[in-house]
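user: can you give me the structure for this one chain? C-alpha cells are fine.
assistant: on it. calling the predictor now.
[tool input]
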Amino acid sequence: MMHTVGTPTQVQSTLTSLEVQPRKRWLPLLGAAVVVFIVVAGLWDVATNERFRWPVVFEYLFNPQILSGVGLTLTLTVVSMTFGILLGIVLAIMRLAKNPTISMAAGAYIWFFRGTPLLVQLIFWYNIAALYPVIALGLPFGGPSVAIGEANVLITPLTAALLGLALNEAAYMAEIIRSGIQAVDEGQRDAGRAIGMTDAKLMWRVVLPQAMRIVIPPTGNQVISMLKGTSLVSVLAISDLLYSAQIIYALNYQTIPLLLVACAWYLLLTSILTAVQGRLEVRYGRGFQPRPQRRFRRSARAAVRTGEQEDRR
C-alpha cells in the first residue's frame, strides 16, 4: 500500500493549519529566579561578613612571597606534566606491545602508581635515603657499581616532589594515551603500512595526531588536577603557593584570609588552563565535531528553495 505525500504547496498548507501550542515558560523562569536569588544572597553574605577580612586578603594577594609560591607551583606543574606525558606515551606504547613481558611491565607500573596515594609517594621519595643511602649505577646481584652520590644530597625536597608528581602522572597519562591510540581506526594503520611506513613513523605521523582529539580533554583535566595536586608538596616544606600562605599566616595568625588568597590564585590559574583547554579542543576537533544547527538551517533553506522551484513549474 502506497502513501502519497503531496506537493510542497499542499504540505506547507497542512503545516500552517496545525495549531501550535505555546510552551509554558513560567516554570523555568521561576527556577532561574530562585537560583539567582540564592547565588546573590550567598555572595552578599560573603562580601559583607567581616570575619573574612577582605582588606587583609587584598593586602596579601600580590605579596612577593605569595607570587614566588605561584611561580614555583606553575614550575612544578609544567615540569611534572611534561615528563609525565612523555613517560606516559612510552608506557602506553609498551602497554599495547605484542610482547607480553613488555606489556605486563608497563601494566605493573601503572597498577602500582595508580594504586598508591600521591601523598605517600611524595613522602617515600623524600625519605628514599633510608633505603638507599648512596645512589649508584651498576650490575645487579653483587656486580661492580659506580657511586653517583649520597641520596640526601641528590634527592632534595624539590627533586622528590618532581619525581613523585611526574611518575604518578605518567601512570594516568599512559591510560589516557592508550585509549586515544586504540580509538584510531585500524584502517589508518593499514594505510600507513601499505605505503611502507615503519611502526615508529606510523605511530608518530598517523596514529598520535589522530588520537589527540580524544587525548586532549582528559589531559586538560589532568593538568588542572596537577596544578591543584602540587599543594601536597607543602608537606615536604617546599615554598609553593599553599606553603607560602601557611608561612605567612603562621606569623600573623590571619589563617582564613591567607587561605582565601591561595584559593583566589588557584581559581585564576585553573580558569586560564580551562580556557586554553577549550581552544585546543576546538582546534584538534575540527572535521570531527558535527554542527547540527548549521546543517539544519542549510537543509531547511534547501527544502524551501526546492519547494519554490516546484511551485514555479
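assistant: here you go. Strands lie at 134-138, 145-150. The domain at 56-136+146-285 is CATH 1.10.3720.10 (MetI-like fold).
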